């Protein structure tokens, strides 16, 4: 058996630009990844199959396998590489669904990494990234699991900065936030957005992390809050947590995050937010 973690993906910032001819938005973002998240396990089998377990499995169990990005990723990799065997795939769903932390994309990236090992495939990083992008704009970045500047619609990746040791507290107030409606609200509210630009985010100490967060933004945050005002409550609670360096919504929501210089601060914040009945998780970050 081969196991791969599909870590939670966080947009430290997310600048959204115009819609491209292919219907996707230009964007500029810095993706970082927690150490914890969903888990993918794969074992040899005659056919490709998918089983789902874990605390958030119920949201996906009644869907046909073809509706799950993990299953489609496995099929697509097998077709591309001429694989004639299969794999028994298990997805341990520990992250909320439709939550803005790249769950589906991270899961797809993890199953690609796992199956390359299981099937002993010789496929280059560039080819695997192109295959990933055909599944979803965030998948190429999720393959790397390291800080990465993302432009285009998600297909252009550049190595991100080396950050100081950071912990993160993620919180989801229990509202689904499908990506499509949030982007449509953005399009209606900002009909002529500027071309998005990446922030250099040079941050070798915590003062610089705070400054970089202060000069960047998530362009979708206001539109998600309009749809679910409880997101503002979650951000405010995180920002007021002792030791928090900055707080913001990730992706299209509804998961929000705060950055901390210590494990203790992140764990304490997660416990306080869980006491409100919200899902929360503390994790170290991959900072290089």
From TrEMBL:
<protein>
    <recommendedName>
        <fullName>4-diphosphocytidyl-2-C-methyl-D-erythritol kinase</fullName>
        <ecNumber>2.7.1.148</ecNumber>
    </recommendedName>
</protein>
<dbReference type="Pfam" id="PF08544">
    <property type="entry name" value="GHMP_kinases_C"/>
</dbReference>
<dbReference type="GO" id="GO:0005524">
    <property type="term" value="F:ATP binding"/>
</dbReference>
<comment type="pathway">
    <text>Isoprenoid biosynthesis; isopentenyl diphosphate biosynthesis via DXP pathway; isopentenyl diphosphate from 1-deoxy-D-xylulose 5-phosphate: step 3/6.</text>
</comment>
<keyword id="KW-0414">Isoprene biosynthesis</keyword>
<keyword id="KW-0547">Nucleotide-binding</keyword>
<dbReference type="InterPro" id="IPR004424">
    <property type="entry name" value="IspE"/>
</dbReference>
<feature type="binding site">
    <location>
        <begin position="96"/>
        <end position="106"/>
    </location>
    <ligand>
        <name>ATP</name>
    </ligand>
</feature>
<dbReference type="InterPro" id="IPR006204">
    <property type="entry name" value="GHMP_kinase_N_dom"/>
</dbReference>
<feature type="active site">
    <location>
        <position position="9"/>
    </location>
</feature>
<dbReference type="InterPro" id="IPR014721">
    <property type="entry name" value="Ribsml_uS5_D2-typ_fold_subgr"/>
</dbReference>
<keyword id="KW-0418">Kinase</keyword>
<dbReference type="GO" id="GO:0016114">
    <property type="term" value="P:terpenoid biosynthetic process"/>
</dbReference>
<keyword id="KW-0067">ATP-binding</keyword>
<feature type="active site">
    <location>
        <position position="138"/>
    </location>
</feature>
<dbReference type="InterPro" id="IPR020568">
    <property type="entry name" value="Ribosomal_Su5_D2-typ_SF"/>
</dbReference>
<dbReference type="GO" id="GO:0050515">
    <property type="term" value="F:4-(cytidine 5'-diphospho)-2-C-methyl-D-erythritol kinase activity"/>
</dbReference>
<comment type="function">
    <text>Catalyzes the phosphorylation of the position 2 hydroxy group of 4-diphosphocytidyl-2C-methyl-D-erythritol.</text>
</comment>
<dbReference type="Pfam" id="PF00288">
    <property type="entry name" value="GHMP_kinases_N"/>
</dbReference>
<comment type="similarity">
    <text>Belongs to the GHMP kinase family. IspE subfamily.</text>
</comment>
<dbReference type="GO" id="GO:0019288">
    <property type="term" value="P:isopentenyl diphosphate biosynthetic process, methylerythritol 4-phosphate pathway"/>
</dbReference>
<dbReference type="InterPro" id="IPR013750">
    <property type="entry name" value="GHMP_kinase_C_dom"/>
</dbReference>
<feature type="domain" description="GHMP kinase N-terminal">
    <location>
        <begin position="68"/>
        <end position="143"/>
    </location>
</feature>
<feature type="domain" description="GHMP kinase C-terminal">
    <location>
        <begin position="213"/>
        <end position="276"/>
    </location>
</feature>
<keyword id="KW-0808">Transferase</keyword>
<dbReference type="InterPro" id="IPR036554">
    <property type="entry name" value="GHMP_kinase_C_sf"/>
</dbReference>
């Amino acid at each position: 058996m081969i196991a791969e973690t599909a870590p939670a993906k966080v947009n430290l910032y997310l600048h959204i630009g115009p819609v491209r001819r292919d219907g996707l938005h230009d964007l500029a973002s810095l993706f970082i990844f927690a150490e914890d998240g969903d888990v993918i396990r794969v074992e040899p089998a005659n056919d490709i199959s998918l089983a789902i377990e874990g605390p958030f499995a119920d949201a996906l169990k009644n869907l046909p396998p073809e509706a799950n990005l993990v299953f489609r990723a496995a099929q697509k990799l097998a077709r591309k590489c001429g694989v004639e065997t299969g794999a028994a795939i298990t997805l341990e769903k520990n992250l909320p669904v439709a939550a803005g932390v790249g769950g589906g994309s991270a899961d797809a990236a993890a199953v690609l990494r796992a199956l390359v090992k299981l099937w002993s495939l010789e496929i280059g990083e560039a080819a695997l990234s192109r295959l990933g992008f055909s599944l979803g704009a965030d998948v190429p970045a999720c393959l790397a699991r390291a800080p990465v500047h993302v432009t285009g619609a998600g297909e252009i990746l550049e190595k991100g900065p080396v950050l100081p040791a950071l912990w993160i507290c993620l919180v989801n107030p229990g509202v689904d936030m499908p990506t499509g409606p949030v982007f449509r609200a953005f399009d209606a509210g900002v009909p002529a957005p500027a071309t998005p630009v990446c922030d250099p985010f040079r941050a070798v100490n915590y003062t610089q992390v705070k400054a970089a967060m202060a000069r960047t933004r998530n362009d979708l945050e206001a539109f998600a809050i309009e749809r679910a005002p409880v997101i503002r409550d979650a951000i405010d609670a995180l920002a007021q947590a002792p030791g928090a360096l900055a707080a913001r919504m990730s992706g299209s929501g509804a998961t929000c995050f705060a950055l901390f210089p210590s494990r203790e601060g992140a764990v304490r914040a997660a416990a306080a937010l869980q006491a409100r009945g919200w899902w929360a998780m503390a994790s170290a970050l991959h900072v290089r």
